[in-house]
Amino acid sequence: MEYAENILGTIGNTPLVKINKLTEEVDALVLAKYETFNPGNSAKDRMAVKMIEDAEAAGLLKPGGTIIEGTSGNTGMGLALAAIVKGYKMVCVMSDKQSKEKMDILKAVGSEVIVCPTDVAPDDPNSYYSTSKRLSEETPNSWYVNQYDNLSNTKAHYESTGPEIWKQTDGRITHFVVGVGTGGTISGVGKYLKEQNPDIKVWGIDTYGSVFKKYHETGIFDEKEIYPYVTEGIGEDILPKNVNFDVIDGFMKVTDKDAAVYTQRLAKEEGMFLGNSAGAAIKGLLQLKEQFKKDDVVVVLFHDHGSRYVGKMFNDEWMRKMGYIE
Ligand code: PMP
What sign does the dihedral 201-172-194-20 (CA atoms) show? Predict the structure, then answer.
């Protein structure tokens, strides 16, 4: 018999899938690391379990404890699944710009959800950073995950996602392209791949309204770069410890409109029903097409599933209201 001991045993070993029509104008072979095959439908399952296991080993998370995290949804989902299997309580603190689907999904897997305003500074007492921190101080036997600065996040991708991509491409990968939020994915995969072959180029996809690109290019944390944006899952107004700028060759910014339009195009032209950051990642890759030669193998990682965006990027009324389609 072949079976997993529990749902956590199905995390990882996601497929690589060739992108065909959308990348016709690109000379290289473009392959998607298709992370929605994880049980929580996103790449974040990998780091959620790793962060919990490392916290257990360090004695930070004890039996019957409460896990508290500020999350845009996917990390919360991974943490919630692991909390169920391992017997912890889960509290997710979210900002109000996140889709209702994401909140409902977290509640469906037994998580308590607390919603905070988006348009306040990170150090405002009502921000979701401050709220999660305060809750963890007030709740007995609790552990605050802090996916931004918790380096087990990067480690998960260094130990699983990176080696999988190297093996699946038979060591032929030349470029890795991925959206950047906490930085865990790009830093873990990027470090592993560059250790195997330092010539591999690693590109981060960023949003307008986020600090990463400017900081990478100038070393300046420019507050003028920070303003509200629509794209979900990527870009930040802080510099998380998980972003290892040393393994990143460059950032490309994608507009909210393009990210939304390409999220729809992936579904309609490739049959890839994916989240908003996948649209940003594929559009960013197309903006980088001059970087790729004929025999290159470009891997783009798609983080999460389209079901979480049916009220937004897959809703034409919403798309028209935003001015993204006619
Ligand atoms: N896409 C989505 C949908 C996400 O939820 C996240 C995590 N915030 C990312 C991309 C970025 O991944 P990372 O946090 O590893 O940089």
Answer: positive
Average pLDDT of 36-42?
A: 97
Four-residue CA torsion sign, 11, 315, 276, 297: positive
Domain shared by 138 and 165, yes or no: no
CB 312 within 8 A of CB 318: yes
Q: Residue 167 maps to which CATH number? A: 3.40.50.1100
Tens of pLDDT along 117-155? Answer: 988 887 899 988 889 889 999 999 999 999 999 999 999
| Per-residue CA distances from 88 to 53, 97, 162 (Å) | 12, 27, 29
Q: Using the mean position of ligand 1's atoms as its centre, give its distance from the Cα of residue 5 in Å.
A: 27
Question: Last residue of some domain: 92, 120, 144?
Answer: 144
User: For this structure, is 44 an active site residue?
Assistant: yes
Give the ipTM. 0.99
Q: Quote the pTM value.
A: 0.95
For residues 153 and 184, what is the distance between their CA atoms, to the nearest angstrom? 5
Could you give the CA distance from residue 195 to residue 197 in angstroms, rounded to a whole number? 6
User: Where do runs of H (alpha helix) occur along 13-114?
Assistant: 44-57, 74-86, 100-108
Q: Are 300 and 198 in contact (CB under 8 A)?
A: no
Domain end position, chosen among 120, 144, 168:
144
| Ligand 1 site, residue 98, Cβ cutoff 6 A | no
Beta bridge mates, 114: 93
Ligand 1 near 275 CB (within 6 A): yes
> What is the SS3 assignment for 40?
coil
| Residue-range definition of the domain harbouring residue 274 | 7-38+160-319
